[in-house]
Amino acid sequence: MSNNEKIKIKPGTLLYPLPAVMVTAGTIEKNNIITIAWTGIINTDPAILYISVKKSRYSHALISEAGEFVINLTTEKLARATDFAGVRSGKNFDKVKELGLTLIPGETNDTPMIAESPINLECKVMEVHEYPTHDMFIAEVVDAHISAEFVNENGSYDFGRMNLLAYNHGGYYGLDDEDMGRFGFSVMKEKTKCRKEKEERRARRQAMRRNSVKRQSEQKGGSNSKSKHKSKKALNS
């Protein structure tokens, strides 16, 4: 059998890899998290996305009732949470409590966002297309948020350091920060390519230094707090 020989197989949805996202639905008081891999981009301006959800899912009713949801990108650190949210039903589990995640209010939607997610996309449902197994919720992105630690000095977003998660035919895979080339690299002049790579490395170093200073400041603040607590305890003893 040659490397170019093809074998006919049963038609199916073998479109991989896909993003594995956690979608929040409901409100701060009554909410659920569902893991969705059937999601994607429809339009750029305005930004329009879709998610496909089975009618039987607990989140389906929450999204249908509210007409909104939030897409929360996932990372390697969130792999277990991502899987759990996809195999356990919100009817029986408080997933936020079970997973120790933090919900924070959205700015435009009533639906909360996952604080641990590096990027949160607040979405308003525009249309719902019904299909035999899933309903497709087409929605406009009305607000977007990114964790400050992933914003470089030049304002660009450092997706490489996010260690985003992908879903590939039943398995979860981490995306490391080594890309095989930036968009347009196949036709880019060598001088331009070198300049862009240099700029990206500089922006990444600046972001790492900024985060290091922030961590040191937080650790120092924690130490001072403990020292004050000990001093107060000694005075009261």
Automatic annotation (TrEMBL):
Keyword Flavoprotein assigned: yes
Comp. bias regions, Basic residues: 203-213, 226-237
Tree of life domain: Bacteria
Cofactor(s) for this UniProt protein: FMN
Record domain Flavin reductase like: where: 13-159
Any GO MF annotation of the entry: oxidoreductase activity, acting on the CH-NH group of donors, NAD or NADP as acceptor
Swiss-Prot/TrEMBL keywords: Flavoprotein
InterPro entries in the cross-refs: Flavin_Rdtase-like_dom (IPR002563), Flavoredoxin (IPR052174), Split_barrel_FMN-bd (IPR012349)
Compositional bias per record (Basic and acidic residues), positions renumbered to this chain: 191-202
Region described as Disordered: 191-237
Family classification: Belongs to the flavoredoxin family.
Designated name of the protein: Flavin reductase like domain-containing protein
Source taxonomy: Bacteria, Bacillati, Bacillota, Clostridia, Peptostreptococcales
